[in-house]
Design goal:
Blueprint lengths: L2 H20 L6 H10 L5 E6 L9 H11 L3 E5 L12 H12 L4 E10 L5 H21 L3 E5 L9 H20 L4 E5 L7 H10 L5 E4 L12 H8 L6 E4 L9 H10 L4 E5 L8 H23 L1
Parallel strand pairs: 1-2, 1-8, 2-3, 3-4, 4-5, 5-6, 7-8
Length: 303
Amino acid sequence: MSDISRRDFLATSALAATAASMGVLGTPRTARSQEKQEKKGAEIRYGLVTYQWGKDWDLPTLLKNCEEAQVLGVELRTTHKHGVEPSLTDTERSMVRSRFEASPVQLVGIGSNERYDSPDPAVLKKAIEETKAFIRLSHDVGGSGVKVKPDSFHKDVPREKTITQIGKALNELAEYAIGFGQQIRLEVHGQCAQLPTIKAILDVADNPQVAVCWNSNPQDLEAPGLEHNFNLVKARLGRTTHIHRFDVKGYPWAQLLDLYVQADYSGWMMLEEGEVPANPAEELAKQRKLFDEMLAAARQRAG
């Protein structure tokens, strides 16, 4: 381990010790324990992925709009107007961290677009190295993880070979991420979106720093059903889950919330929506209110 990596590791270890005494979301552990005794799923929070609704907001606007909507966690997608990218200088990274520290909005992590399926070794190596740059960025600006993709299968390449390649790449990244206190969040995405495929990747990527970012895809509902598919990866859920608008039919949101509450999930359910409404900031507040109502009902059903 280099001197820089060692210093980072020691620093993040100290932070982890503090977090352990306070609880994963910064709430004193005694208070969290009391809350959990009252309701399962007490540590489920609502956030935003800057996929489309926040793609045109600079960082001050993003923080303002999220605070006003009481959406207090964000995953910053790469290439968007907020400009939080690996190209930032050390000074610029410190400025981003300071903005979040001065805001009630938490930087949950960075949403990269890196994937590890290519049969071309040079392409795979480039993706791994660029992911490492996102890991360093997330650490420097105060995030706790980086979202990545699996992602596709290729002609004349056995599926099992691609699955093994993706899993090994994730293990390499997870080992690197440990030194920076980061989680590798594997989005359920692309041609790998069937949950049995994700489980097969996780069986290879057995480093505990690798976690699943549930993505609320139509494939979740494939036979034998949502509950079965959820249980395939439940033990590896990460701190982020991607959801969509709760007022659009087609996905069993109440059942999904029941599963998350019953699992006593601790993390963020984050809106990732494609179609942009006329007023994203106003709609975000409406979605937060609807989420609160549906989560409260799920907690009530859990008893």
